[in-house]
Amino acid sequence: MVPNSTPQHAKEKALATVIASGVVDRVALVGIRGYYRDSMGEKGKNDRGIYDDAMILLTPNVYASFNANTDPSVFRKGIATLKCGVHLYKKGNHGISKPNGGYPALRPANREESLPVTRDGENDGFGIAINIHKGNHSSTSSAGCQTIYPNQWDAFIALVYSEMKRYNQKIIPYVLTENRNT
Fold first, then answer.
1. Phi, psi for residue 26 in degrees, rounded to 5
2. Is position 144 within any domain?
3. Which of 95, 92, 117, 96 is nearest to 106 (CA)?
4. Residue 139 burial (CB count, 10 A)
């Protein structure tokens, strides 16, 4: 399930979120979990398995929003949900274990590729390879990753990569927030 349009989040709000998070990089991503919380899925609930979240690319030259999913696709013991906060990403491939080596995506920038998560039915901890990658039409394709609606993926990753190159930025901060009022 995907909304009829891309998120219409005010640029000033996204910029304020980035600044309040202490991010000073020229290229940044903002994720808003539950952006469509009351207009998609069950009212008053952040659903899983639908593109009810927003991902925004913010640079001095670009402000672009995309339909996203910041939750796992299903509830299952041990499945990871990325905690809100600032997370650092770098260019990399998703699905590197596949025979073709995967496709361009964003991967955690630290050496261990670990990020703080909550886990269904378990204690909080760290998740490995919580990537930002392309979702699927029939599923958000997330076992903890952040996914972009597939029809928007090519434009998203091309724009992110080109803006990182333009500003000679090897790492891109991703500020994940909990609701659309941030």
1. -80, -25
2. yes
3. 92
4. 13
pLDDT value at 33 more than 80:
yes
Q: 72-76, 81-85, 146-150 — which is least confidently predicted? A: 72-76
* Least confident among 18-22, 24-28, 131-135, 176-180: 176-180
Domain residues for 55?
Answer: 11-177
- Would 130 be classed as within a structural domain? yes
The whole-angstrom separation of Cα 82 and Cα 152 is: 22
* Residue 115 counted as domain residue: yes
Instruction: Enumerate residues 6+ apart whose C-beta is below 8 A from 27.
Output: 57, 58, 59, 160, 163, 164, 166, 167, 169, 172
State the amino acid at position 122 in one-letter form: E
Higher model confidence: residue 96 or residue 33? 33
Alpha-carbon dihedral sign for residues 163, 137, 130, 91: negative
State how many domains the chain has.
1
In a domain? residue 62: yes
